[in-house]
Specification:
- With about 400 residues, this protein is mainly α.
- It has 13 helices and no strands.
- The two termini are about 30 Å apart.
- The longest helix has about 50 residues.
- α4 packs antiparallel against α5 and α11 packs across α13.
- About 50% of the residues are buried.
Length: about 400
């Protein structure tokens, strides 16, 4: 089987997982809201999901480097199936504290599954594209990542649709069965030696990185922390409380934002095409600088008393476009800075920083919104973006 077919199989696995991941997030959120759980209790349901994202990315690359990417890819899909079946077994007669613990545990499994699958899929692209073909690598990584984000938005819609039509438990079981069929297909068709690098890497090497990998990972931490500072808590509360939007309107807007963000991300290589030289550190530095200007523009517009709804909706649409460029460049650079033998290790370390930024951004989002509303979230986001920009000066140009 040729490399293009292998890429298609890996992408199919990633797509299937992503649909269930987005749908699961919306199913849990809406179902437990309907049951009367308060916002803090609902937030607790996702705590282990985010926490295990950090842990899994820390050790996932090491596991992939030692056991091969097929093991981590299959393991991620299997854990997601188990998480879906586990959540479907939730008994509505249980006490709230038992239900919360059970859902947190299932979400923890799903968090591990997400980052094992993501790390495996993105590391596999590094092995399927020749080292010298940087423009091709940029293109295929952008397509994989952009399509993932678009499908995650579709998953938001899917979760709401399944909950409204077949109910919570049937929705979970149907997704688990579908993902099981996809897992069996991938196991039977993906070559046994795909991603089988199996290097004897010591555990302490997880935190031993080249300067460019460290700088890129640190920049990623602040980049995604900056996004989640307003996206996770600040934006939905602002739309509901300040603009008076209903839950369907809020979830639809956020889903459309993620879908559009993914489409732009997949198209970034066409916008930045340069046959002579693939993008490098200077391009990442320029992109994050523009993102900072956009963020400051939104918050200054709100401070100046411009129409808040229009300012936020248009401003964050522009933010999404520029953020997609930043994310696509970062996702490409982590692979471009890596060799075949350490791709899984570097990707795992890099997405650990990504997950850490999301976790910190989520916590800071709630604190900032409580202290000063969406404007405070955006000011904090601008600070994170400034730190990412400073770190980007340590990123070299590709040769």
């Amino acid at each position: 089987m040729n490399k293009l077919a292998n890429y298609a199989l890996v992408t199919l696995a990633y797509w299937g997982f992503t649909l269930t991941d987005g749908a699961l997030r919306m199913l849990v959120l809406l179902h437990f809201y309907q049951l009367g759980y308060n916002p803090f209790e609902i937030a607790l349901l996702f705590l282990l999901y985010e926490f295990f994202g950090v842990v899994t990315n820390l050790v996932g690359g090491w596991i992939g480097a030692r056991l091969g990417l097929r093991v981590t890819l299959f393991g991620g899909l299997t854990l997601q199936v188990l998480a879906l079946f586990m959540l479907a077994a939730l008994d509505p007669e249980w006490q709230p504290i038992m239900s919360i613990a059970w859902v947190m545990a299932s979400q923890g499994l799903s968090g591990i599954a997400k980052d094992l699958t993501k790390m495996s899929a993105k590391s596999a692209v590094r092995l399927l594209v020749p080292k010298e073909a940087n423009n091709a690598l940029f293109k295929w990584v952008a397509i994989l990542t952009g399509s993932k984000n678009t499908l995650k938005g579709v998953g938001f819609f899917l979760g709401g649709l399944l909950l409204a039509t077949v109910g919570f438990k049937v929705a979970l079981v149907s997704m688990a069965v579908t993902l099981t069929v996809l897992l069996i297909l991938i196991i039977l068709t993906l070559p046994a030696d795909m991603g089988d690098i199996r290097t004897r890497i010591k555990f302490r090497q997880i935190l031993s990185k080249s300067p460019e990998i460290n700088a890129l990972s640190a920049a990623r931490f602040f980049l995604f922390g900056a996004r989640d500072l307003w996206f996770v808590v600040g934006l939905p509360l602002f739309l509901a409380a300040s603009l008076g939007w209903g839950h369907v309107q809020v979830s639809s807007y956020m889903a459309l934002w993620v879908i559009a963000y993914g489409l732009v991300q997949a198209a970034v290589p066409a916008f930045l095409r340069n046959k002579a030289q693939a993008p490098g550190g200077p391009a990442a530095r320029r992109a994050v600088f523009v993102l900072g200007l956009v963020t400051l523009g939104i918050v200054l517009g709100l401070t100046a008393g411009l129409a808040p709804g229009l300012t936020v909706i248009i401003g964050l649409a522009v933010f999404g476009i520029v953020f997609a460029v930043n994310s696509a460049l970062h996702s490409y650079l982590i692979l471009a800075y890596s060799e075949d033998h350490d791709a899984a290790l570097n990707v795992g370390f890099y997405y650990m920083a990504n997950a850490g930024g999301r976790l910190v951004g989520t916590l800071c989002s709630g604190l900032a919104y409580q202290a000063g509303g969406l404007q405070a979230c955006l000011w904090a986001s601008a600070i994170f973006i400034a730190l990412a920009w400073l770190l980007s000066f340590r990123l070299p140009q590709m040769h």
